[in-house]
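Researcher: Here's a chain I'd like modeled. Treat it as a single chain, no partners, no ligands.
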Amino acid sequence: MSSTPEKRISILISGRGSNMEAFLKAAQSGTLSGRVVRVISNRPEAPGLATASEANVATTVVDHTLFESREAFDAALVDAVSQDSPDVVVLAGFMRILTPVFIDAFLGKLVNVHPSLLPNYPGLNTHQRAIDNGDKEAGATVHYVTNELDGGPPILQVSVPIEPGDDAASLAARILGFEHIIFPEAVNWHLQSRLIQKADGAYLDGKKLPATGTLWEWQA
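Model: Modeled as a single isolated chain. Structure tokens:
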């Protein structure tokens, strides 16, 4: 009697990898329908590499400073990721703008979390921009990655009230805690084949998701 092959997750990080830790904990607890097979960083000094090693997860460094172009780095990154034949590639604080060389190699399997309610505030400094704009809410969006920066189909969003006295740091810290919940949940849908990316958007259980993804419900 054959068993279903275990789903494989590769994670890319650039720093401490707090979202990566959320995936490791979810896998360890059995709430994630897959196993983290490798953590890859573009920075040799990334603290998250030690965290992954302590969890007995293979690690690889592909140092972007050693390459003459983004495309050359991305080609090496494709090789590093491909060795494990992952079912999904998770960008967990991977601070590199990826070129089509990498994105096209894993299109439909590449998932990121962005710290804003996309399509609002793509790019950097999202929390400060939301505060400066007088927004009442901020949040995070899990989305598939395409060649449009932060423009891939949204999957799952969490909305968090901006409180009086919030600054970018306090807002970021509060939202990060919710990222640790929604990111593994959305990736789990993909691993369970409930979630797929098509040319016109993301589909969950056969139904096209709204342009902002589905909203995660939380208890205040």
